[in-house]
Amino acid sequence: MKRRLWSGLIGVVVALAVGALIMLAQGYRPFSTYAALFQFSLGGIGPFTTTLKNSVPLVLTGLSAAVAFASGPVNLGQPGQFVFGALAATIGGLYINLPAVLEIPLLLLLAIAGGALWSSIAAFLRRAFEMSEFIVTLMLNMIADFFTAWVIAFPLMDRKAYSPMTPQIVMNGWMPDLGLLSSSTLVMLGAVVLVWFVFHRWRAGYEWRMTGQNSVFARLGGCDIQRNFLAVMLVTGALAGLAGGLVVMAGPHRFIKGLGANYAWDGIMIAIMANNSIVGTLVYGVFIAAIQTGALGMELITNVPSEIAQVLQAVLVLIIVATREYTNVLLDRLSARRQAKERAA
Amino acid sequence: MNVLIGLITGMISGATPILLAALGGTFTFYAGIFNIAMEGMMLMAAFFAVLGSFFFHSWLIGLALAILGSLTLALIFILFSVRLETDEFVTGIALNLFALGITTYFLRQIFKVKGVFTSKSIVPVPQLNIPIIEKIPFVGPILSGRNLIVYIAVIATFFCYYLIFKTRFGLRVRGAGYNADSLDSSGVRTSRIRMQALLLCALFCGLGGAFLSLGYVTLFAENMTAGRGWISLAAIILVDGHPYGIAAISLLFGFFDGLGLFLQNYGVASQFTAMIPYIATLFALYVYARRVREKKGKRT
After folding, report:
1. What is the ipTM of this complex?
2. Averaged over B45-67, what is the pLDDT?
């Protein structure tokens, strides 16, 4: 635990230093840039709640990836599951109008169902034809992307808008703000707690983790591998779908072009940085959200384009993972050397 | 007649980037590297091809910069995955996102645009007219007048086959993937072979990326590779990395790519025609999975 914390911290510091070098090479001043970046994302209660709100899709897709990777399935379909969740919630919000107390849970359920539906296709193809979910989910991402682009450009297009988007969903389906805090943040925290509980305290979660670490052992121990695979695919699809629904309900209140953009891939990176730990996903998710949120403010006062956040993120993930794994390699070598010495003596 | 020629030439242009990326990927496939960075390598190459061609008004410099851009990504891959022993899957995903980030950033920083950069000053890679063949009816307009990189891709297919199966280097590459320990114990450093395989992969992905932005179209768009690197990975897996098989599969994908553009003329929504190559990939994976299962059935 302690080792993970240290390697994470070292990784963050090294990555920020590399980012500073990139900025220096471009003729920007790294310190004031970073100061502006974190000023706009963490400097005060308002910026911090904005960061938390922006972290919702990142953390939820990150959770989806973390649970999948830790349990075995290489579900890289978060982008597709995300837009399908968003689409399902949008359609519900366009055609169903109930009091907010009912409408919001209904739309959230629709989002969950939309994501799970899309991931169930990959699960089905794996189950019925033994097609590897790795490339299947990637291809399904592209298909989902084009499909939703078609839906918002033709059947559900808002005729008053200049670019493809749906009309706004009913007001009762908007995620309310509680003061500065968006209620979508609470849904996210609830999901984190629930997933942690299932993963670490329930039998199902235990079986998933065992299958992920050693599927032969899990099978000999009596786990139903096929059923667990299906369950993990559905749960992870549901999480990604929930992320999509929340983005629609808390943000633009409609499905706009490019809604999914990079959230889901960022989530996958966050899961990788966190080494598939649930709490780690939450921490890194908020951290990445801080960088993304701050980047917009940074652009306003320092002229550094906000796109640098994307570069910084990729550098972060590489360096954090490399630091962690290389520390392990070094420690393993040290212990091997020690053992060799003991044996020689 | 003209429709048919159009379909076939469309198929060839659609196939070329996938073919080149997949040929590059065969080296890493045989060398036992789980390389999923083809997407990023192509994207880097596509960007730097436009950069070079725009500023130096020369497609040759564009091509050179494209390969350099792609090689840079390969060097980072080597640094992390071979030197620092980071997980290859993680490295690949991070590099793909790095390529997306850095090209978007540079697009904004250097060309001051978001989304798409296009200009008359970008010199595309020329088309090659073959003197005698171009006169032959039907075959002529197909074989002649294609982009230079298309011809390079054809030669590369045979070259890769020769390199992998007929040379000592190829044997070592395959050895690195088949049994790294015995290759090491026979005095060849596996890590060095893997580095060379990655650099070769980057070379071919560089050509593929340059074809996208200086041949297929003459512009650079954010994330313009649009999953072609992943399709090429699927192509490699489908034929177990054999260069000729890859050529066949790439042509098949090229056909569906061209078919999509063709169907757009008949009023099919472009979003649906754009899905076709990905659905074709899913179908190909289905056929592959069935074949594997049948083989397994026979053995037992």
Report:
1. 0.83
2. 91
